[in-house]
């Protein structure tokens, strides 16, 4: 059973000390932001708090694995342009030509690399807080749809979606206006 489970790589993006002020003083804990992925289309983001750093990381990894999703990737890049939003953070992801690499900063780069996307352009708009930016990138990746998925959703053929003219059995061209 363990052999069938994909090998997920883990990357800790941020560890931060947080405090809750209570009557007796300050309650100190640690928050960990972790991304997991197999670099082949599966990625997840997790955030957790605990009294100790290793516990926070362990909890965040568990949460990231739990909410991991399969991402649509075509030819090493994303199939189409997409915008992800979370809170005041907004990220724009654009497909890029082979050889471009991952042009993204901070938390967005970690999410995109562990998803297995090799060529992409990303621009953070608004807040660049690591937690919100990582989750906004994750939301953007969840919105991606491949050409076959779109064709199936619309009950059309792929050729109809991309605008190619096809001939019917009578020799007439379809797709003309």
UniProtKB/TrEMBL annotation:
Known function: With S4 and S12 plays an important role in translational accuracy. Located at the back of the 30S subunit body where it stabilizes the conformation of the head with respect to the body.
* GO cellular component terms listed in the entry, alphabetical order: cytoplasm; small ribosomal subunit
Q: What is this protein called?
A: Small ribosomal subunit protein uS5
One of the entry's Gene Ontology molecular-function terms is: structural constituent of ribosome
Q: Which residues form the S5 DRBM domain?
A: 8-71
Keyword annotations of the record: Ribonucleoprotein, Ribosomal protein, RNA-binding, rRNA-binding
Write down the HAMAP family for this protein, in alphabetical order. Answer: Ribosomal_uS5_B (MF_01307_B)
Q: Which InterPro entries match?
A: Ribosomal_Su5_D2-typ_SF (IPR020568), Ribosomal_uS5 (IPR000851), Ribosomal_uS5_bac-type (IPR005712), Ribosomal_uS5_C (IPR005324), Ribosomal_uS5_N (IPR013810), Ribosomal_uS5_N_CS (IPR018192), Ribsml_uS5_D2-typ_fold_subgr (IPR014721)
A Pfam family found in this protein is Ribosomal_S5_C
User: What protein family is recorded?
Assistant: Belongs to the universal ribosomal protein uS5 family.
* Superkingdom, taxonomy of origin: Bacteria
The coding gene here is rpsE
SUPFAM superfamilies xref list: dsRNA-binding domain-like, Ribosomal protein S5 domain 2-like
**Which NCBIfam families does this chain map to?**
rpsE_bact
What is the annotated quaternary arrangement, including any partners?
Part of the 30S ribosomal subunit. Contacts proteins S4 and S8.
PANTHER family in UniProt: MITOCHONDRIAL RIBOSOMAL PROTEIN S5
Note on domains (UniProt)? The N-terminal domain interacts with the head of the 30S subunit; the C-terminal domain interacts with the body and contacts protein S4. The interaction surface between S4 and S5 is involved in control of translational fidelity.
Q: Which GO terms describe its biological process?
A: ribosome biogenesis; translation
